[in-house]
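May I ask for a protein sequence together with how it folds?
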Amino acid sequence: MPVTRRRLLLVVPAALALPTLAPAAALRVPPLALQSWRLPNGLQVYALPDAAAATVSVQVWYRVGAKDDPPGRSGFAHLFEHLMYKGTRHMPAETIDRLTEDVGGQNNAFTVDDVTVYHSEVPANHLEPLLWAEAERMAHLEVDQASLDSERHVVVEEYRERVLADPYGRFFEALPALAFDVHPYRRGVIGRIDDLRAATLDDVRAFHRTYYRPDNAALIVAGGFDVADLARWVQRHFGPVEAPGTPIPRVAVVEPPRRRDEARRLAAPHVPLPAVALVWRAPGAAHRDAAALQVASALLAGGHSSRLHAALVRERHLANAVGFGADLRADAGTLAGWAIAAGGVPPARLLGVLAAETLRLAEKPPSAAELAKVRAQLTTAALVERETPAGRAEALGWALVLRGDAHAADRALDELQAVTAADVQRVAREHLLRARRVALTYVQGAPG
C-alpha cells in the first residue's frame, strides 16, 4: 500500500452496479498517446499530450522504494520522501507548495516497495516552473539536522498511528513478513521506530547520491502542453544534472521456495475481535498469470457480491469483514486472504471456512455472468483512471516500474478482458491449491 507524505487512503471498493460484458463485447481502447526519449544523463522522459486538457500532471518516478532501505534503516525510503520537500541550494522549503497550491494546483508523494513517486498537477501554463523545481531537488537537495529531526518525528508518529494504535495495524503489517523469509519485501514501508531514530545526516546524503539521480528516474508529463516546448524545458532544467559514475545498487535476492505449510500466532493489545489470514507467495507483476490473478482476487473479495463476503459475512455471519488481495510487485508478489471474526466465532473455525471458500475457486470456476461482471468492474476502474492526465501518467508509471515497459499499460486492458474461467481455475490451482501457505491467527494479548 502506498505511503504518502500527507495522507494515506486505503480504499476498499464496493461492488459496482455495472452491466456485464460478454466476451464478444470486449472494449477496444485507443492506446495512450505516448512519446518518449532519454537524455544523455539517463533520464527517461514520457510525454502524454492532450490538447483538450487545461491542466498538466508532472510525475517523477524514482526507482527506489522500501526494498532498497539500507541495512538497519527500515523506513528510510519513506522518510527520505518527506525530506525531499525541504530546501535546496536555490529553493527554500515549501517552494513546491507555492508553485502548485498558490496557482490552484496540488502536490503529493508516495512510497511503496519498488518506487517513490512525486506528483503534482497545475494549470498548463505553469508547467515550466514545476520542471525547474523537480530538477532542482534532484540535483541540489540540502537537509539540515533540524529538518531531519522534524520529519523523523512525523514518520514515527505515523507508525504509532497506523500500526501501534490501530487494533489491526500489527495484523496487516505482519502479512508481508509471512510471505517472504529473505527478500526485503518482508519489511514494512513505514519502517521501525528504532531504525528511524538511528538515521543520520550522513545517511540522508548518501541515499540522495545513490538513488536520486537522473539515470534512476522517469519523468512523466501528461496534459495540456506542446511536446516541443516540453522537450526544450526538460533539456534546459534536467539536462545539466549530472549522473554519478557509480552503479545503482539493485536488490538481487531470490526468495527460496516454501517447503511446507506453516501456522503462526500473533498477539497484540486492544484487539476487539480475533482475525485470521492465509498468505501465499505469488509471481511478480510481469508474469503471464498476473491478469488472471487480479480477476481471481476480485472474484473472491471485490465488493459485497464477492464470494468471500457472501459466504463469510452475509450468509454464515462468521466475519465482520473479509478481504483478498493479489499484491504483485516488480520482483515477486503475495496472495493474502483475511477475515475479522464476528462476535463469538472461534478463530480456528473462521480460518477453516476462509481456506475452504478461497480454495473453492480452484474446484468451481466462475460462471459466465460472474466473470463478466468482475471483468467489467476492473476494466471500468482502469478506464476511469485514464479520464484525467494524472491518471494516465500513473497508469504509465506503474507499467514502467512493475513490468519494465510503459506500453504494458495498454496491453493490461486487453489482458484483463481476455481472462477466461479456465484461466481463473488454473491460477487458483497453481498459486493457491498446490502452493504452500502461512496461516495467521491474531488475538488479544501481550505482544511477543
Remarks:
- Residues 259 and 436 are 7 Å apart (CA to CA).
